[in-house]
Known about the structure:
It is built from two helices and twelve strands; from the N terminus they run αβαβββββββββββ. By secondary structure, the chain is α+β, with helices and mostly antiparallel strands. Strands 1-4-5-6-7-10-11-12 form an eight-stranded antiparallel barrel.
Amino acid sequence: MGISRRLTGACALVVGMMLLAAAPRAGAAMPGLYFSGFYMDSALAYSTADVKQQTMEDWRVAIWRDEIGGDVLDLEEYDFDRTDIGYSFGVGYQMSQYFAAELAYVQIGEARYAAVGNVQAGGEGGQVYRTATEMRTRARGLGLSGIAIWPMGDRFSLDARGGVLWGKKKVSYTVVVQGVGYADGSMKDDSIAYMLGAGINWSMSPGTAIRLGYVRLQNALFDDRHAGSWLLGLKYAW
C-alpha cells in the first residue's frame, strides 16, 4: 500500500542519517545539546487528523454537487482512515543555548476515505449511476519555526516551538462511474496553517541528538481541520 512505501522510504533515509551521525567525525559542535550554528533535523511522524467520517462524507456530497454536477442518493459502503505515517526534513540554526530557528519541509497528517453509492446526474428525474469515490486530504508544506530550549545537563533538554506552515490545503479525489468512466480533481482552500509543539532531546554524542516530540498543526487540512503528530527524529550538527 501507499503508506507502506512511504514508511519504508522515510525510515531508510532517517536510519541512514543516524548511522552517519554515529560515525566518528572531526570538528563536532560543542558537547551536550548545544548546537553551535547550523544543523539538520529529520523526523518520522505518527499523525492523527481531526476529521470524522461524516466530514468526509459531506465533502463527497460537495464534490459530486459542486465539482461534477450530480446528487448523492445514498452510501452503500465506505472505508475511512485518519491516521498516517509522515515525515519532516529541515535545516536549523541555533543562535544560543536557549534559542533556535528551523526551516523544514513537512508532510504530516492525512485522512483517506473511499465510498460506494448511487448518484443521480442532472437533477431530479436524471439517470442514476453506481459510483465509487476515493478522497484524500493531508497537511504538507514549508514550515518556519522559532524554538525555545531549556537545557537539563549535558545530555537532555526540553524544547517548545511555534511557527507557520505554508502549503496546499486540499481534498484530492477520484470518482468512478460504473459503465461510463472516471475523473479526478481537487477542492482547494487557503494555504496558511500554524504549528505548536514540544519535545525532549537526548544527546548521543557532541552535535548529535535524538528528539521525541509532539506537534499540533492548526488549520492545516482542508476546511481548517487540524492534525496532531508524535515525532521521533534526529538532529545532526555540522
